[in-house]
Amino acid sequence: MNSSHSPNLKKKFGQHLMISEEILGNIVSYVDIDRSTQVVEVGPGTGLLTDHLIPKSDALTCIEIDNEMVTYLENKYRSVSAVKIIKGDILQMEIDELTENRPYIVVANLPYNSGTKIVRHFLESSCKPEYMIVTLQKEVAYNLAALKGKQNLLSIAVGIYAAVEVLENIEPEHFSPPPKVDSSIVRLVTHENPLVPMDEIERLFRFARAGFSAKRKQLINSLPNQLGLPSKLITELLLSAGIDPKRRPETLTVLEWHTLTKNYGDNYDC
Q1: 44-56 burial, b for 16+ CB within 10 Å, e for fewer?
Q2: 46 phi, psi to nearest 5 deg
Q3: How far apart are CA 40 and CA 122, in angstroms?
Q4: Tens digits of residue pLDDT in 139-165
Q5: Using an 8 Å Cβ cutoff, are 103 and 24 in contact?
Q6: 175-176 vs 17-18, strand pairing mode
Q7: Residue ranges of domains in the chain, CATH in brackets
Q8: Cα distance between the two ends of the chain
Q9: Which residues pair with 61 in a beta bridge?
Q10: Distance (Å, rounded) from C-alpha 8 to C-alpha 66?
Q11: What is the pLDDT of residue 2?
Q12: For position 162, what pLDDT does the model report?
């Protein structure tokens, strides 16, 4: 693989290169595929993770937004048939066209400034990955995983489509330049079918946003005011969904929000 001088990193893209061979090896160790599996890598940078993925897959598609990085990568992998470099913003791409509607996984060291948007872009597409192994800012990773009943709007939005697990944490010195925060390796395994039907998601978020607008309050105190609905109706809906009205929004799972809002839709939403 021929390569020239490494390009400069650009703050506007949130670029922090993973330089630890140990951590790169750890990321790839979570990837369980055969060589025919299509792998999508977002933001390959100078290809340090790409180098570790090449022995895993004969179909590796790398999406890079930075012109200088693209030129570098095209030169570096000119003679490597397994690697395909595509210039562009993944958030502006149709995933079904990118993957040709074939099964695929995502493995990436995601930029901090757009990591969650990229995760949601893949999960909310018509052609979802089988699973994703990605690095994210640690705080974001734990918000996604919603450990110890700490649900939030982001964990609900992602949890509709995938199960989230934090695999390990990464200290800043494993990156160049070192970020000011810790990172985490996260696995997102896509549900066979979304937990909530598409036509019911908007209603679910209407209720969830109302709850989290006053997240420290009990549901019976926040939902009536924020939704403009009678307390008696909210109490009936919560109890019919098997939810204690005194619970707080961060304790509700995706399925509980769905049951609550489906009951409302079936009986009151016209």
Answers
A1: bbbbbbbbbbbeb
A2: -95, 5
A3: 11
A4: 999 999 998 789 999 999 999 999 999
A5: no
A6: antiparallel
A7: 11-190 (3.40.50.150), 198-267 (1.10.8.100)
A8: 62
A9: 40, 84
A10: 10
A11: 45
A12: 98
Query: Which SS3 state, helix, strand or coil, does residue 125 take?
Result: coil
Residue whose structure tokens are 């707080």: 248
- Reported for 115-120, long-range contacts at CB under 8 A and 24+ positions apart, including other chains, are 115/140, 116/140, 116/144, 116/154, 117/91, 118/42, 118/90, 118/91, 119/144, 119/158, 119/188, 120/157, 120/158
Distances (CA, A) of 3 to 21, 166, 256: 19, 34, 52
Task: Record the tokens describing residue 166, joined without a space.
Answer: 């934090």
| Backbone angle region of 111, left / alpha / beta, with phi > 0 → left and psi within -120 to 50 → alpha | beta
Q: What are phi and psi of 170, to 5 degrees?
A: -130, 130
Give the sheet arrangement for strand 183-190, strand by strand. 83-87, 59-64, 38-42, 104-109, 131-137, 183-190, 162-170
Quick one: tokens of 146?
């919603």
Burial of 137 (0-12, 13-18, 19+ CB in 10 A): buried
What is the identity of the amino acid at 74? E
